[in-house]
Write a structure and sequence with these properties.
Lipocalin; mainly beta; 73% strand; 249 residues; disordered N terminus; 1 helix; 13 strands
Amino acid sequence: MSSKTRLAAFAIALSVQATPFASHAAEADDWEWMVEPYVWVASIGTDMRTFSPPTQADSDMSFSDIVDKLDGVFMGRVEGRNGRFGAFADFIYLGLADSHQRRFMHTSTDLDARLFDAAFSVRIGGQRDTGLDLYGGVRYIDLDLTTRFLPDNPALQPHTLDAGDSYLDFLFGARYAWPLSDRWNLVARGDGSVGETDGTWSASLMTSYRTGNGAWLFGYRYMEADLANRNSEIALDLSGPAVGYGFRF
């Protein structure tokens, strides 16, 4: 049986996107660092399949309903780059709760997801703020998903299903930046991971507008992870538009 929980999240967070580090005054070998707070209006969904016992629960909420359902959201990214090489660390925490009245029972679902990326990057071609970057590192996912089933019939016993585990993958990806003008850039990014998960991947398309101390960010991002253990299969996805500001120092 399958279960589906689809939630929409309004996240004020630190960036999960990379922004060009262009500084015309900077020397090629100088390191620059970027911290990127932004607002991400994203839908967040989980699909779960259990084998023993076979259990089903699903939930759907509109974005206007989700603000009251958030248990906590935090995302943070720090990246440093010089003329050719770079490194970044990215942490995401999502805490979500949902409940639903179904035929013959009430269900409630709690989701706590932690995702951590760490990688090194190398510029293959182009100048400091343009061209192709390749990166590789690790992606760690820790997921707790609990669904409670409360039958309407008091003669039936409540049941709780705990599904979750931790996973460590090898991460690989690419990012390409196109200069649109002296201040505007377009950045496309895609990555994936393999290892203890059944695979993850993400893609984004961001536009940046360079200012004296950083850059404004506008764009869209999608991420999906397929997770499995001995008793369950879980698909987690996040998608939505983002706008924010990246501070450079």
